[in-house]
Specification:
- By secondary structure, this protein is α/β, with parallel strands linked by helices.
- The protein folds into 3 domains: 285 residues, HUPs (Rossmann fold); 158 residues, Isoleucyl-tRNA Synthetase, Domain 1; 164 residues, Nucleic acid-binding proteins (OB fold (Dihydrolipoamide Acetyltransferase, E2P), Beta Barrel).
- 40% of the residues lie in helices and 18% in strands.
- The chain is built from 21 helices and 27 strands.
- Strands 18, 19, 20, 21, 22, 25, 26 and 27 form an 8-stranded antiparallel beta sheet that branches. Strands 1, 2, 3, 4, 8, 13 and 14 form a 7-stranded parallel beta sheet that branches. Strands 6-5-7-9 form a 4-stranded antiparallel beta sheet, with helices on one face.
- A hairpin with a 2-residue loop joins strand 11 and strand 12.
- Helix 2 crosses helix 3 and helix 13 runs antiparallel to helix 16.
- The N terminus is likely disordered.
- Bound molecules: 5'-O-[(L-methionyl)-sulphamoyl]adenosine.
- The site of 5'-O-[(L-methionyl)-sulphamoyl]adenosine (MSP) has 21 residues, from strand 2, helix 1, helix 7 and strand 13.
Length: 717
């Protein structure tokens, strides 16, 4: 079974389907934007393209998240799936289909796939005891009680009678397949990781679960639900119509399968490069042509993720700088396949430098001058001089190199090559200064120079704009209109990129009125985006403070949150006054945390601590959380692992209080945590926050708590 390397006349590409346990953030938007750019370029090249995205809605993780939110899993999933789809629409992403794994068409297809695998002898029943990571929805090969090797969270021991897929039968076939299709998985780091995983030996895989119900029932054995990864991966075929009797669905499946590219995050390579091709081979279905893994978007040094609390929303960037700015930044700044940092400062710098002062300014200079000197009508360029030949040659070579770079997903270099051309066009204008008539130049000569220079610069802009269309669809459409070329969307439908060559802007074309493209971002742009993010996290808390975590966007409710800053809480209540409480701090380095030490000043109010201002204090985000899970950490007798609920999210915290608190007594208790503490690892587990407690003279901690009812997530200030 080999993938075909020929250029297809149709192209099918997919994003991963997103878990609906948390709202979308920039990390999710990244993969979807990359796919959107690819889909737009393919369509503009006349390739019949199908771009699929969607949501992954089953499994234990979603079931638990829904329970915490006091919703049914279906209600919960519907609300968050709506947020993903709504955001993709708001960003103008051009997906052709959005699949939800709770849809009938998907369930039917998954059951068909499961039955096929079973009928073909690749699924058998057995019993299983192993470690399961609920967060990754993955079986992991570690000792009971040990953390997940991928995410560091504690694994659960699962003992169930399950259905197994004969993955072991595919070890050799997969290795042969990778060998025959060296381009199947990229980047190289992914390829190496997958090869070493398969070469390490494949064990049969449990593909059903029996201890919870939120999933697709196994055909003819409804006590079991299909393992969420088999369910999820199948979306790529069920969305096309696999398992349907409808001839239109069957035709779509026949036309678009196998997929040309599954774009995924690097941490889910094993599922896409090992399990997925093995399932398909076993079912007798062709395997996808390629899997491409993107790196992670990092923010404040860590992978952007809800559980770390370091997310930025695409809506924020869109509101201040526009969707194109976000697309440009992600594709230009991060070499595809590598991890990349997101920062508001870098974003604004790129925006002002490359978009406002670069491309935007170039377009506005040329369009304005064509209006000023030629009444908005493109003049005939006349004969080329050396300067025009140089700019044309440069444009033609950019045109030749951009496609292969883009198609190789090397967006960053592809864009760099365009910006070299933008700078050159700018330099060409400046060098020829069509706005300045030297005294020794005749009027006729000057008019000829103006015509030549402006027509040539406008032509370079036309080519640049056409190439940029997949990345900056809104801006490109505006420029296209200003150049008098009509609607770019229409041009894109008639495969305008295939005919793109120097010389397409005819003399006599009427430019439309100039319109600003990328207005310069003011100094406060960063602050405005940060404020929007703060606002959002506050409204998430307020939404949660009604008692249930409401996954739907809701107008902020006025929640009573903690005591006002200027009113100090009574000294007797350790909870309300963080200054009077000694935090149960994580231990230094990798050592097990020591019992909290009592610094002398904590018993002597007004002691030796330096004074801080209110600005210092507000940097510490203290919030109310409820303990959901509390357990001892194996081989660490002072350490407890807690899972706490902040109303708007759950997270794991490690605390050195095991000698003072029985874990079971903590469950359900409302506590105070430092919510914006940088994550740190202890015993291989990540701690995302710190508990507040008063520290007694003998070192015993007394956890801060409340006498009145307080909503989860409420901030102490
Ligand atoms: N549901 C599975 C995928 C099933 S595909 C058949 C899943 N969902 S996820 O919501 O956790 O992640 C979806 C995608 O978002 C993954 O590709 C993941 O890498 C990506 N990202 C989530 N956070 C990210 C960043 N901070 N940066 C880049 N991509 C990130 O896994």
């Amino acid at each position: 079974m080999t993938s075909q390397a020929t250029t297809p006349s149709r192209y099918y590409l997919t994003t991963p389907i997103y878990y609906v346990n948390a709202r979308p953030h920039l990390g999710h938007a990244y993969s979807t934007i990359v796919c959107d750019a690819i889909a737009r370029r393919k369509r503009a090249l006349g390739i019949d393209t199908w771009f699929l995205t969607g949501t992954d809605e089953h499994g234990q993780k979603i079931e638990r998240s829904a329970k915490l939110a006091n919703r049914t899993p279906q209600e919960f999933a519907t609300a968050i799936a709506g947020e993903f789809r709504g955001l993709w629409d708001q960003l103008g992403l051009s997906y052709d289909d959005f699949i939800r794994t709770t849809e009938e068409r998907h369930k039917r297809g998954v059951q068909e796939l499961f039955a096929t695998l079973r009928d073909r002898g690749y699924i058998y029943k057995g019993s299983y005891t192993g470690q399961y990571c609920v967060s990754d929805e993955a079986w992991v090969d570690v000792a009971p009680g040990a953390p997940c090797p991928d995410c560091g969270r504690v694994t659960e021991t699962v003992s169930e009678e399950n259905y197994f897929f004969k993955l072991s039968a595919f070890e050799r076939k997969l290795l042969e397949f990778y060998e025959a299709n060296p381009g199947f998985m990229q980047p190289e780091s992914t390829r190496r990781e997958v090869l070493s995983f398969v070469r390490g030996g494949l064990k049969d895989l449990s593909v059903s679960r029996a201890s919870f119900t939120w999933g697709i029932p196994v055909p003819d054995d409804e006590k079991h639900v299909v393992y969420v990864w088999l369910d999820a991966l199948a979306n790529y075929i069920t969305a096309l119509g696999y398992g349907s009797d409808d001839p239109a669905d069957q035709a779509r499946f026949a036309k678009f399968w196998p997929a040309d590219m599954h774009l995924i995050g690097k941490e889910i390579s094993r599922f896409h490069c090992v399990y997925w091709p093995a399932f398909l081979m076993a079912a007798g279905i062709p395997v996808p042509r390629s899997v491409r893994a993107n790196g992670w978007l990092l923010f404040d040094q860590g992978k952007m993720s809800k559980s770390r609390g370091n997310i930025v929303r695409a809506e924020t960037v869109q509101a201040i700088l526009g969707a194109d700015a976000l697309r440009y930044f992600l594709l230009r700044e991060i070499p595809f396949g590598q991890d990349g940092n997101f920062s508001f400062d870098a974003l604004v710098q790129r925006y002002n430098g490359d978009l406002a002062n670069g491309y935007g300014n170039l377009v506005s200079r040329v369009v304005n001058m064509v209006h000023k000197y030629f009444g908005g009508v493109v003049p005939a360029a006349g004969a080329e001089t050396a300067a025009e030949i140089a700019l044309r040659t440069h444009t033609e070579s950019t045109l030749a190199e951009f496609g292969p770079l883009f198609d190789d997903l090397n967006f960053s270099e592809a864009l760099k090559s365009i910006w070299v051309l933008v700078a050159e066009t700018d330099g060409y204008l400046t060098a020829n200064a069509p706005w300045k008539k030297p005294t020794d130049r005749t009027d006729a000569d000057h008019a000829a120079l103006q015509a030549r220079v402006l027509a040539t610069a406008a032509e370079a802009i036309r080519v640049i704009t056409a190439l940029l269309y997949p990345i900056l669809p809104d801006a490109a459409a505006k420029v296209w209109r200003q150049l008098g070329l009509g609607e770019l969307q229409d041009a894109a439908k008639s495969s305008f990129l295939t005919q793109l060559a120097w010389g397409g802007l005819n003399a006599g074309t009427h430019f439309t009125e100039p319109a600003p493209l990328f207005p310069r971002a003011e100094k406060d742009a960063v602050e405005r985006m940060q404020n929007l993010e703060d606002e959002n996290s506050r409204s998430a808390v307020e939404a949660a403070s009604g008692g249930t975590a409401n996954p739907e966007p809701s107008a902020p409710k006025s929640a009573a949150i903690a005591a006002p800053a200027e009113k100090p809480a009574p000294k007797a209540e350790p909870a309300a006054a963080p200054v009077a409480a000694a935090p149960v701090a994580p231990p230094a380095a990798s050592a097990e945390p020591a019992a909290p030490q009592v610094p002398p000043e904590s018993l002597a109010p007004g002691g030796s601590s330096p004074q801080i201002t209110i600005d210092d204090f507000v940097k510490v985000e203290l919030r109310v959380a409820q303990v959901l899970v509390a357990e001892r950490v194996p081989k660490a007798d002072k350490l407890l692992r807690l899972e706490v609920d902040l109303g708007y999210e759950k997270r794991q915290i490690l605390a050195g209080i095991a000698q003072y608190y029985e874990p079971e007594k903590l469950i359900g208790r409302k506590i105070v945590i430092v919510a914006n503490l940088a994550p740190r690892k202890m015993r291989g587990l990540e701690s995302n926050g710190m508990l507040l407690a008063a520290s007694l003279p003998d070192g015993a901690p007394v956890l801060a708590s409340f006498l009145e009812e307080v909503p989860l997530g409420a901030r102490l200030k």
